[in-house]
UniProtKB/TrEMBL annotation:
Compositionally biased spans, kind Basic and acidic residues: 88-110
SUPFAM superfamilies: Putative DNA-binding domain (SSF46955)
Organism: Desulfomonile tiedjei (strain ATCC 49306 / DSM 6799 / DCB-1)
Ranges for region Disordered: 67-110
InterPro entries: DNA-bd_dom_put_sf, HTH_17
Record Pfam families: HTH_17 (PF12728)
The organism's place on the tree of life at top rank: Bacteria
Protein's name according to its UniProt entry: Helix-turn-helix domain-containing protein
Length: 110
């Protein structure tokens, strides 16, 4: 119980939902040191509880995740058709040099 803080105050539930750096690190799959680094770099918002302690809301974590997410790009200008089944061994026409030509090329390197 917080001194001089009414029990029926609507923000009391919000205070209970604050997360520690260790919990945030576990959620994001990073170390607590990295969480503190993100706060210093102003990439992750926090609630400064004391001069040393920081807490985080679920919304702050979700906002960080959204800011780090990138949409998948699809190049719609020039879609390439894909055959339903690739040919076994590849397409001989697409190969630039024959095996004989490659051997001659390698011999010329010596």
């Amino acid at each position: 119980m917080i001194k001089n803080y009414p029990e029926n105050h609507s923000d009391s539930a919000a205070i209970e939902r604050l997360l520690t750096a260790v919990t945030v690190a576990s959620i994001l799959g990073i170390s607590p040191k990295t969480v503190h680094k993100l706060v210093r770099e102003k990439k992750l918002a926090c609630v400064q509880v004391t001069s040393r302690d920081r807490r985080f809301t679920h919304e702050q974590i979700q906002e960080y995740i959204r800011s780090q997410s990138t949409p998948v790009r699809v190049d719609k200008k020039d879609p390439r058709p894909v055959q339903s089944r690739p040919k076994k061994g590849g397409d001989r026409k697409s190969v630039g040099l024959s095996r004989t030509d490659l051997r001659e090329e390698i011999r010329s390197w010596r």
